[in-house]
Each structure stands twice: as structure tokens, then as C-alpha cells.
UniProtKB/TrEMBL annotation:
Sequence ranges assigned to domain Malic enzyme NAD-binding in this UniProt record: 264-515
Record keywords, A-Z: Metal-binding, Oxidoreductase
Top-level taxon of origin: Bacteria
Residue positions of the active site: Y97 (proton donor), K168 (proton acceptor)
Name of the protein this chain belongs to: Malic enzyme, NAD binding domain protein
Claim: Metal-binding is one of the keywords in the record: yes
Source organism (scientific name): Sutterella parvirubra YIT 11816
Cofactors (names): Mn(2+); Mg(2+)
Annotated binding of (S)-malate, by residue: R150, N402, N446
Cofactor: how bound: Divalent metal cations. Prefers magnesium or manganese.
InterPro entries: Aminoacid_DH-like_N_sf, Malic_enzyme_CS, Malic_N_dom, Malic_N_dom_sf, Malic_NAD-bd, Malic_OxRdtase, NAD(P)-bd_dom_sf
Amino acid sequence: MSNQNQCVRGADVLVNAHLNRGVGFSAEARDRLGLRGLLPPAVSSAENQVARALALIDSRPDPLGKYLELDAIRAADENLFFKLLIEHTDRFMPIVYTPTVGEVCQKFSHIYRFPRGLFVSYEDRGRVEELVANCPQEEVDVIVVTDGQRILGLGDLGMNGMGIPMGKLSLYTACAGIDPARTLPVTIDVGTNTEAYLNDPLYLGLRRERVTGDEYFALVDEFIQAARRRWPKVLIQFEDFGNHNAFELLRRYQDKILCFNDDIQGTAAVALTGVYSAVRVTKKPLAEQTFLFLGAGEAATGIANLIVDALVDEGMDRAEALKHCCLFDSKGLVTAARTGLAENKQPFAHELPECRTFLEAVRAVRPTGIVGVAAQPKAFDAAVLREMAAINERPIIFALSNPTSRAECDAETAYRETDGRALFASGSPFAPVELNGRTFVPRQGNNSYVFPGLGLGAVFAQAEWMPTGMFLAAARTLAETVSEEDLERGSLYPSLSEVRDVSMKIGVAIAEYAYEHGLARNERPADLEAAVKAFMYMPE
Ligand SMILES: O=C([O-])CC(=O)C(=O)O
Ligand SMILES: [Mg+2]
């Protein structure tokens, strides 16, 4: 608690979510803070407060209702909110994060109640510094920023996309112990091309079509400069930008400031972990794997590039490594014969026959794994899955699009159509599947396993910037947490209930990388792991 916070007394404490402990305040604290009479007389134990909150949340049958209860708890008492999230991660992650957060975003303007974060509108261009100065946070460690153009697999949600930076930052705190008082969700609102929002009287964003080109980049830059002037060491995470802008922003800032793009680099690290787990099962090394991606955007080329980097790191020639990844986009298989390909796809345009359907492409490429990242629901149908099972003893099937409604296939279909041989991961959660007397426990190949730890390590070491080596290190560290028992059950990732420990390990690995490579702006503590653990926020 800062000195400034220690001066806050009386009712002001109760309306400050960082400070308020509500009925959890002890008699002594009530006297000290001038709260006597402002709360019901009984003092609740922590268990009692959690039990009351759980009952309230459970009284709401639908996920959105549960979200609204949690959101209200957060607005009143942040400590309690994070206690719930940390003690019941498995249960609440699908509420504050994918898939429910998708619905939250779609309805954001209709359910808006509590102020949080920073809204940078195009109308405020030229005075963004003033907006940043208005933020109450004295210090900010992590910013997650979106422009709402490609929210999960749901498309352009405009300002409504703010639910995503909010959800990501909740995970930063719950999974990696970033102090919630030092996080800032940001939406840069340059308009939306989604008619439904422009015609919705309750829509809270800018009513105009998206600003593009130089004016767009100038506004994003004005924000980045203003944020870094106020908080020079802040980590900026780019989230759910449209393809074109996402690649361009990463190109502009990647090696100049402390930042990363979660959809390109975070997703890549987590997918590579899934691949490392899968090859432990197939016993065929990475060098013998070939991947066919359904999609050719941020996630697809982010993952493909990191697989290539991993192969090069193992000693393979880069030109050869590139051939291990093939892309299938809206026009079909990406081949050398294709013209006008976006820059990110060009390295993956190989000498391959023209294929118009994904099934044809599977037959032509004969991949060991398919990776769905195009938000095309059910695109991995029975024919595709059976073909993969015919080509491979243990086919790798990653249906990574979010939320659940956008998944390329569900877990049950993946296991059923491959006679239980699929090595499956998905972006959104699926329940365990019973098949032929076996229970499969699929887990999420979602960047939530890595971005909190990546950020923790980078913030801890006050890294200058985040090179590719950090993302490889994150993937390898995460892979080491997958046990033989996990693999036995078909789990390519550890249990979410372990995510805090996993994030700590990734944080240590990333900080270590920063110290070893001269990227840190502080001294390495002698006992790095103990120091990182001590740095992590924990609710009281
Ligand atoms: O938010 C998630 O669940 C994963 C992600 O970054 C995306 O799908 O854009
Ligand atoms: Mg994302």
C-alpha cells in the first residue's frame, strides 16, 4: 500500500476497489480507518467472504450472469475477486476469459457499468498525453491494448473489444501475480466497420468507419509514446488487432520497445509447446513433422515462424525448415504459383499442387499435424479427420480458434473420427471425452499458458525488448511442466490449476534470458526464483 493509500479513510476506502475489504475488515481496521458503523457489524472471515461470493455467483445459471457477478465483486473488492480467481481458476477462467469473454465483448455496450481502463478515441488525437495523465495508476507494469478489429474469432467489435484487455489483465494477476493496481487495459477506438454496432443506440464507441493508414498509425504511436513517457518501463501487449495492422505494429515496435503481440508470438509459443508434447508421444522428432495450417493470419504465420525457428535452433537449414509448414487461406493452398501474397505468407509459398479444399490440401501435403486458426467452425470435419488418421498413426489436431463457437472441431469429434488416436488441443476449453472405455482430457492450446509468465519475466527484469529466443524459452519451459501422466490422458498441457506455478517458472526463464543476453535494466538477484516469487502479488 503506498503512502497515498494510507491517507485514505472512511467511506473513501469502501469505494476504492484496491483498498476495500468490505465485511472482511477487522474491528481494529474499522477503527483505524474510520469505518465503524459503515459496514454490517459482523466481521467475515476470508472463507466466509469466498463462500458468500460463490453462492452469489452460483445463483446465476448462465455464464454471462456469472461474469456480471464477478465483475461487480471486482468493482467493489479486488482482493476478493482475485482470491476467487486464484482458488477456482478452472471454474472461473472460462468466465472471465474465453469463451464467455467473447459474449461479454459482443454485449459490452449493453452491460457496461463500472469504469476501468483507458479509452483512446480518434477524436482525442493530439491530446492523448492528457488522457494518459488522467489514469489514476501511479505506476503501470503491463498494458494490454486492442483496437477491437479482430476480437477472438468474432471479427470487428470496435470499442466493445475492451472486454479482451480487461480479461487478459485479470489473468496477468491471477496467473502470474502482476499487481492489479499496476495494470492498464486500453482500447484505441478508431471506429468500427460493423454495421450492427453503428446502428445500435446503446453502442458506446465512436460512430464512424475505421480510420486507416497514416492517421491510424499516428494515433497508435501517439498513445505508445505518451504511455512510455509516463511509465518508461511498461510492457505493452498488442491484442486482437486486425492482421495487417498487427504485423505492421510488431514490425515497427518489436525491437525498439518492451512489447509483444500475443496473437502472433504468445499463441506461437503455446502451440509450439503442444507440438513438443505431441512429439514426445509420437516419438518422431520435430524434424520429421509437417504442419498444414487452416488460416494464414497472425496465429498461423506466428506459429509457423516459431516452429521454423525451433528447427533452425536444432540445426536445420532455414530454407529446409520453412518447408515443414504449409498454409491454406481463403483462396486455397498457398503455393509458389500464387501471386499477390501478403508478406507474412510468402516464405511459406512452396512448390505444391493447386488445392481448393482443405481436404485436397491434406491429401497433397500429407501433414503430421493440422492447425486450425481461421475461425471457421467445424472446418475439421469427419472427412478431414479420417484422412489425417489414415495418414498418421497419431495425428496432431489443433483446433485453436476462439471462442468455442469458432472452433474447427470439438474434442469429441476429433477423438471419435480418429479412433481415439488424435493428439488434440483447442483454443477454448472442452470437457473430458469418454471413448471406448478411455477418458481423454483435452487441454487448451491457448496463449493464456504463456503470456502471463512472459510478461512477469519481462517486467521483473525490466527487459529492453523481447527477442524470439524468449518465446522459444517460454515454449520449452512450459513443455517441461507436462508430465507423463498428462500425456497418458491425452493432455498436451499441464492442468490449469497449476497455471500460477507454471507462469512463475516461465517468468523465471524469461527473466534469466534477459539477464543472460544483456537485455535487463536491473541486476540479477542471486536467488532469481525466490525473488520472482516474492515479486508476485497474492491477495490477502
Ligand atoms: O483470447 C484468447 O482466448 C486467445 C487469443 O488471444 C485469441 O483467440 O485471440
Ligand atoms: Mg487474442
